[in-house]
Amino acid sequence: MPASYAYLGPEGTFTEVALRTLPEAATRELVPMVSVPAALDAVRSGEAEAAFVPIENSVEGGITTTLDELVAGTPLMIYREVLLSITFALLVRPGTKLSEIKTVTAHPAAQPQVRNWMKTNLPQVIWESAASNADGARLVQEGRYDAAFAGEFAAARYGLVPLETGIHDAENAQTRFVLVGRPARPAAPTGTDKTSIVLWQRDDHPGGLRDLLDEFATRGVNLMLLQSRPTGAGIGNYCFCIDAEGHISDRRVAETLMGLKRICLQVRFLGSYPRADIGVEDAGAVLPGTSDDEFMAAADWVARCQDGRF
Question: pTM for this structure?
């Protein structure tokens, strides 16, 4: 049997479309799961080699279900990311008119991306969340709801028709997906990588977040995402999910992680992996004083001082 990739199903999700853009997907058995937690649990239990799930969209930010699953439980690692442009279609059973729609469904992350369109075109419609956009289409097929926001490509799979297409409140909306597996050695750096971590502070004190950010700033490491998530230990208790430019093998990133490990209660490494938004030809130069050569030269100088060779 081929190795399997679990993904947020059922068939016909944006997640499946994004997953199929990975060359290795053609050599894997692709297994739809009912939820993001189910897909990630399949990896933790060894039932799947990896899971492919949404983690961020350009309209609403981080997908909290995915972030919370990566924050808690047995550690997992991100190995790849994919960006997919998102537009929705309003899928209905054949013969349904816009004026007849009373209920609509989709994944919760879809609502902020179609909210204004609904306000204009379906102001009295009741929204109900579904486990995924494709699952919403399935529920419309079964007669549970009148319409679903999903990819137009899902219509044929569920015997529906697209009543409206090209629906989006924000131009150029994108969703970011990640391939997640069990912890192992990160892939070699490409020159355009990002590193994902989760941080827990030792205590709550004035300037606590600044102390964390200083570890990045003093080493010239740029942040791409910073989001707080509740720890479940009570109001005001948060951890921080962070994406930073660079690879753990870069000296500036490695020393940043060492600095954070010293001052934080806990640091969870979620992986270093290639960025999907730029290619090597678009990579910017690192700040003066933060290249690997400059870090190594500084370490060599300290060693010479310790030996009395300065």
Answer: 0.88
